[in-house]
Amino acid sequence: MIRFDDVSKTYEGQRRAALSNVDLEIDKGEFVFLVGQSGSGKSTFLRLVLREYRPSRGRVFVAGRELNRLHNWKIPGLRRQIGTVFQDFRLLPGKTVYENVAFALQVIGKPRREIRQVVPETLELVGLDGKGDRLPEELSGGEQQRVAVARAFVNRPRILIADEPTGNLDPATSVGIMKLLDRINRTGTTVVMATHDSTIVDQMRKRVVQLVDGRVVRDQARGVYGQQ
Amino acid sequence: MRHIFSETWSGLRRHISMVVAVVVTAFVSLTLFGAGLLVYQYADALKGNWYDRVEISVFLCTEATLGDNCTPGAGVTDAERSLIEETLTTNPEVASVEFETKEEAYREFQEAFEGSPIQDSLTVEQMQESFRVKLVDPQQFEGVVSSVAGLPGVQAVQDMREILRPLINALQAAQVAALVTSGLLLLAAALQIGNTIRMAAVARRREIGIMRLVGASYAYIMAPFLLESLIAGVLGVVLACGTIAGLVAWLTQNPQLSIQAGGWIGWQEAGIAMAGVAAVGIVLSIVPTLIATRRYLRV
């Protein structure tokens, strides 16, 4: 589903590479933790998957497309196959929970009938049924992140990318979000999650890829956060 | 589609004062641009009118005249006169040639200075014969002038363009000034539209970020901004065209003014000016929008 072939990325005006010589393959339906300190290259990895940047060297394949060769006008098509969740939720403050989730479908031109059917289903899936009329500010952090997950998943993407999704949440709430991501993973969606949270990684026992200074130093099935 | 229109509408409402400012700027600059186009056409018509009357006068020698090609004490001979006439009539640049006799010149002189003390100061014999030459293209006078200026019997060649030159220069300056002034105003309007749209893009950057993330197409993200500036631009165009139409209606209906502008500024010219205003108005609203939003829509 995602393949990196000897990928390096150096940002303009910087000497040190954000990623160097990364070779990695993530299969369909996998759940992968991307761990490492701030600046180790986790976000760069995710941004290359989203084709927010092109790699400086090497090739990136996502959902059967080679992103180096992807025309700009085809990027929206790629992103419709990828759901994204961030640490800071990124909800629209003026819109209700329902509208926030529906927004993701409206802007890619889905018919209204489909939106009216899919959005309540997804809200139920993430455990927010009955809260569709609330505004984001009326919700707890955990609930807001659930809205963000619903928005990322409402179009049933093949890949879900989560960048520190529990970074702003307390441990108990984080567990809830992780259960949700796990449930989404079980539907066949590939999940890639960058995180600092050792407790979560240790509990989940999923594949762990560790980055240090832009290099993959560990790739372990059913791994834990720290070195063993 | 519904979503694009509702986004456009809410965008227009959200910063209504900015939109009004854009419409007013577009309106004023487009009106002046249209007026500039009218002035330009008026000046062109005026120039054409003058050029139609422009002629070259070839004055012939008399016994009393001095000149490089005159024989002192003798006037132009018949042979010389017919050579000059033939030279003129065979020149392809010449449209028509008329000969003015001494008697005709004298009569004209008498009429021009009727009642003046110098009316009787000249006799028929002292008047000069001349050829009055009209040109096919009034701009191309040098060739005709030089072809006869050196012929024996020609005392002087006078080109009326020389007399009209300061007037024509002033008209051309007015044309340039009208276009430059309205060009500067249009530039200011373009910058203002660009800034307004940029602010609208900044205000919506959360939405834009999410739209890009979930895979909305560029056209979709762009559409509300383009529509918004297009609506403002079209309003400006409509107001400007209305003003120009009103101005032309007033000019053509006011009898005193219509003598001045006599037939040179009419609905045809107004139509050209309005078409120009519409074309420039559309470009004025779309191009700055594309430039201003490019940064925010970059992949």
From TrEMBL, chain A:
* Lineage, uppermost ranks: Bacteria, Bacillati, Actinomycetota, Actinomycetes, Propionibacteriales
Q: What does this protein do?
A: Part of the ABC transporter FtsEX involved in cellular division. Has ATPase activity.
Question: What is the protein name stated in its UniProt record?
Answer: Cell division ATP-binding protein FtsE
Q: Which organism is it from?
A: Auraticoccus cholistanensis
> Chief localization class?
membrane
NCBIfam families per UniProt = FtsE (TIGR02673)
Q: Name one GO cellular component term.
A: plasma membrane
Q: Does the keyword Transmembrane helix apply?
A: no
Taxonomically, the superkingdom here is Bacteria
User: What InterPro entries does the record tag this protein with?
Assistant: AAA+_ATPase (IPR003593), ABC_transporter-like_ATP-bd (IPR003439), ABC_transporter-like_CS (IPR017871), ABC_transpr_LolD-like (IPR015854), Cell_div_FtsE (IPR005286), P-loop_NTPase (IPR027417), Sigma_54_int_dom_ATP-bd_1 (IPR025662)
Q: How does it sit in the membrane?
A: Peripheral membrane protein
Automatic annotation (TrEMBL), chain B:
One GO cellular component, as annotated = plasma membrane
Its subcellular locations are: Cell membrane
Task: Write out the entry's keywords from A to Z.
Answer: Cell cycle, Cell division, Cell membrane, Membrane, Transmembrane, Transmembrane helix
* Membrane topology note: Multi-pass membrane protein
Q: InterPro entries, per this entry? A: ABC3_permease_C, FtsX, FtsX_actino, FtsX_ECD
Does this UniProt record's set of keywords contain Cytoplasm?
no
Q: What is its main location?
A: membrane
Q: List the Gene3D superfamilies hit by this protein, alphabetically.
A: 3.30.70.3040
Which residues does the UniProt record annotate as the domain ABC3 transporter permease C-terminal? 181-294
Q: Which residues form the FtsX extracellular domain?
A: 54-157
Q: Check the record and name the Pfam families matching this protein.
A: FtsX, FtsX_ECD
Q: Where are the transmembrane segments?
A: 20-43, 176-197, 218-251, 271-293
On whether Cell cycle is a keyword of this UniProt record, the answer is yes
Can you cite a GO biological process for this protein?
A: cell division
Q: From which domain of life does this come?
A: Bacteria
Q: How does it assemble?
A: Forms a membrane-associated complex with FtsE.
Family, according to the entry, reads as follows: Belongs to the ABC-4 integral membrane protein family. FtsX subfamily.
PANTHER family documented for this protein: CELL DIVISION PROTEIN FTSX (PTHR47755:SF1)
Function of the protein: Part of the ABC transporter FtsEX involved in cellular division.
Q: What is the official name of this protein in its record?
A: Cell division protein FtsX
- Organism equals Auraticoccus cholistanensis
